[in-house]
Amino acid sequence: MQQIYSAYFLEDTLQLTPTLTIDAGIRYEHTSPWTERYNQLSYFDQNAIDPVTNQAGLLTSTNASRRGQTISENLNFSPRIGVAWSVHSNTVVRAGYGMFYSAGNGGVGAVPSEFGSGYQATTSLFMGQPASNPYLPPIGASLSNPFITGVNQPPSSLLGTSISSFLNRTFVTPRNDQWTASIQQGGKDFVVELGYTGSRGLHLWNDQQIDVPSSSVLSQGNALLQQVTNPFYGKITTGTLSAKTVQAVQLLRPYPQYLGVSQKRDPEGDSIYHALTAKADKRFSHGYSILAAYTWSKLIDDVPERFAGRSYIADPNNLRSARALGDFDAPQVFSVAHVLDLPFGAKQRYLTHGPASWVVGGWQLNGIFRFQSGYPISISAPNVAGVSGFTSYANKLHSGQLTTSPRTLNTWFDTSAFQIAAPFTLGNASRNEPDIRTPGSTDYDLGLNRSQAFGENLRVQFRAEAFNLTNTPLYDAPNSTVGSPNFGRVLGGSNNRVLQLGLRISY
Known about the structure:
Helix content: under 10%
Radius of gyration: 30 Å
Largest sheet: 15 strands, mixed
Strand content: 35-45%
Number of helices: 1
Distance between the termini: 45 Å
Number of strands: 23
């Protein structure tokens, strides 16, 4: 397998006046499609006509004239600019904008199936024409021959099966636009800064099923699951779609000749982030300094974080309905870091001479305190949509915030606010709830260290560290599955106190 990445950039700094500086640049990036030495890859061509069923949409193999699964994107130019203006000796205003592409393979290649179907052919289990009673096996079915219509051999268009693949179109690279502005006021021993940061994510990747019918068909209810005459009978020769009848909903799909079509890295996601920031850095006398920072922010997006799995999309055809607070939206973050040189030993205030100064001198105490609010909770519920490709949310009756009783680990939110949606509906809850959150985190780490030189070339450093000194638990997210006996309960936690000693010798 091969994929080639290349990048070029140009940058310059312009000193327009003694107090005004501009940094400007532009970067170009290009990522080639995946190719394979013997062209043993495939892609889904939405416009190609399948010669067997005469339907649009066909899993197509690469060849010598079309080696890549996708079409290259050739216009990934990303400008950047930054401005610094010294208003007067102690005040600086800064602003900047940058465009960034998330170049790379998007995690593709971790396992062979990431490259899509076609040469990794599969055959669905099929024992025969379904019986009229759905709770009975097909007439004449036998476990000794579960593939009575044969097995797909690669390379194959895999008609009649479920496939995952890249689509026959330009492989759009995710992009992030970032902008920032701040004002910094300094003094002899302190710096204070107020700022704003924003970012916009475009073309965010999401593995997504693309053969889902319109959600309007759900109003047909149980009629979708009724067996109807299969127009592909006698044309498709393997799997479920080789039977005389199929479920009615199958014929309503955009590509009915396939049981399912999933797109790898569908670049359809969108996000927006805004944050106000404040920072103060103060250096005191006698070796003590402190740095405090605070962020107040909000993140909104319409696709879940791909590797976290904290939320899901109900209707792949309508990402607007999935737009909600991001999986990792943490509106408030506050941290304080401090460093203190203990006032003992040479050049300090106390015990400056003698054996005692050798023992207690040279020690430094440092610590970090951090608080972060919790993430929005994603309420899940049994999937009652009834049609493959849809995943229903819960029904939300009112806010999940507790108003009449205190919040406890056994009752983290008002569970009566949610119920299972009606059959063949998608529910009305949000992908992530805006008014209930997981437990926040509070942590204080403290360290004590000393470095001692022996001659010119040998230095020994000793460190004693306490992580989560106060042993404050970090509680797990509450169970958020409607119908679970533990719905709304926090069942565990982590982040025990850890004590650590270290010795480092440098020579």
